[in-house]
Amino acid sequence: MKIGCHVSIAGGIENAAGRAAEFGCETFQIFTRSPQGGKAPDIKESTIQNLKEEMQKHDISEFVVHAPYFINFGSIKKNIFYGSVAVVRDELERSSQLGARFLMTHLGTFKEIGEEKGMEQVIDGLQKVLKDYDGSTEFLLEIAAGAGEVIGDTFDELGRLSAELKKMKGFGGICLDTQHAFSSGYDLRTAPTIKKVFKDFDTKIGMEYLRMSHINDSKVELGGKKDRHDHIGEGHIGKTGFKEFLSFWQAHEKKTKDEKPLILETEHDKVMEDIKQLKAIRKSLKA
């Protein structure tokens, strides 16, 4: 159960590993380009080698990449739709170059196109992303927070999308953001409700496709439909909820014989405390 957080690549991607180590991370997450847009910086061989050396220096064996925020597979504007396909595919290739374990992406919104036609377009776009892909990084879909007509905020939608991708090389499964899921109505506060949530996940998607988590508390109440992260124990999921979640996660790892990263996306003012809290909970589970 590796615990880490999102870190900056300011000054070069290779600097991310050192920053992660300063926070006490055992894994980490980065953007490889500006999440708001603009040209992606070239990835040089020296960058790849320096990143590997820095990771070895700090005893970090893996990391993940988050796709930019401007992605929208549900846009009726062809330049935005095809641009989203091109950027996510490029990010998948860049992640593979760097040696990242996963690339996860948000999917956008049905606002312009409507859900029925939109689902067909999103599936087409995701298939285009993976067509003839032969890299090592696995592609994940991230659950959304349920605001407006956002794509992928339910297990039903993620299950429908995953069903079309499971036979394609490179598809890994789902990144479960605890705050997004909670905001979308999935109760992660107690052992019984967590069991119920993942029984539903197994039915709609398949537990073997639960690959990693963005582990964030929630500033909004259950079903609040807003993307508002909070520090561990300070939000509506609460410390008890995270203890039960990590207990479930540990059992899931043992069953699948696969370590699944837990990545914090909380403000850096207290992210070190968040990491310490999660490590303390993990230690208590082993006691």
Describe this structure in words.
There is one protein chain. With 287 residues, the chain is α/β, with parallel strands linked by helices. It has a single domain, classed as Divalent-metal-dependent TIM barrel enzymes (TIM Barrel, Alpha-Beta Barrel), CATH 3.20.20. It is built from nine helices and ten strands. An eight-stranded parallel barrel has the order 1-2-3-4-5-6-7-10. It is globular, with a radius of gyration of 18 Å. The mean pLDDT is 96.
Identify the notable features of this structure and list them briefly.
single chain, 287 residues, alpha/beta, TIM Barrel, eight-stranded parallel beta barrel, two-stranded antiparallel sheet, 9 helices
CATH architecture: Alpha-Beta Barrel
CATH class value:
Alpha Beta
Strand content: 5-15%
Radius of gyration: 18 Å
**Uncertain ranges:** none
State the helical fraction: 40-55%
Q: How many discrete structural domains?
A: 1
Arithmetic mean of pLDDT: 96
Question: Can you count the beta strands?
Answer: 10
CATH topology: TIM Barrel
CATH homologous superfamily? Divalent-metal-dependent TIM barrel enzymes
Q: Largest beta sheet: what is the strand line-up?
A: 1-2-3-4-5-6-7-10
Give the termini separation.
15 Å
The largest β sheet comes out as: 8 strands, parallel, barrel
Overall body shape: globular
Tell me the number of helical segments per DSSP (H or I, 4 or more residues long): 9
Q: Give the structural class.
A: alpha/beta
Can you describe this structure in just a few lines?
The chain is of the alpha/beta class and 287 residues long. Helix content is 43%, strand content 14%. The protein has one domain (3-286): TIM Barrel.
